[in-house]
Amino acid sequence: MRVTEAEGYIEPRDSISHDWVNKLAGWGMTPLPIPNMGHDTISYLNNLKPDLLILSGGDDLGTTLIRDKTERALLNYALTSDLPVLGVCRGLQLINTTLGGSLGEVSGHVAKSHEVKFSSKWHAYYSTNTIVNSFHNYCVEPGALAADLQATAFDSANNIEGFCHREKPLAAVMWHPERPDAPQGDLKLIHSLIAKGKES
Hints:
This protein has five helices and eleven strands, in the order E-E-H-H-E-H-E-H-E-E-E-E-E-E-E-H. The chain is of the alpha+beta class. Strand 1 and strand 2 form a beta hairpin. Helix 3 crosses helix 4.
């Protein structure tokens, strides 16, 4: 979750957009928000026993160190336990950098929908070309993807807007599935991750 400040109070709070709560409820899923607790969050996660970990968007990496530490701990745990993971925007960036990739800066991608093209690996979820929402200042440039990841979606400059892990039940997208204008294929992708996790 994001770390935010309530107006009139000097106390950091964890928060998540109602968009996520409403979207997941509409998909018949129960959201279980995970507080930013650093490495201690793993025992909390074990008690929840989720079917899927979503690393959501909002805030650039490095903005809130406790969130970075929490989400990297969650990701590393998920990779070792085969817990399915979906990274969203910031989540995609965190996954790529944690696994050894890098980020570049991009302009014109904040509050501006654009077309992405998909590799055949994701044609079961999305059409060849799809319009997606966009709210990011950083991108994964061609050649900057971590070795364990496979690119599956690209913008017009061939920057990577989606990928999956070569072996694990993990995928990430640069757009926001929780927003009303998100592609319908996002739910199919999520179901495939959960199914792959159950096979592991």
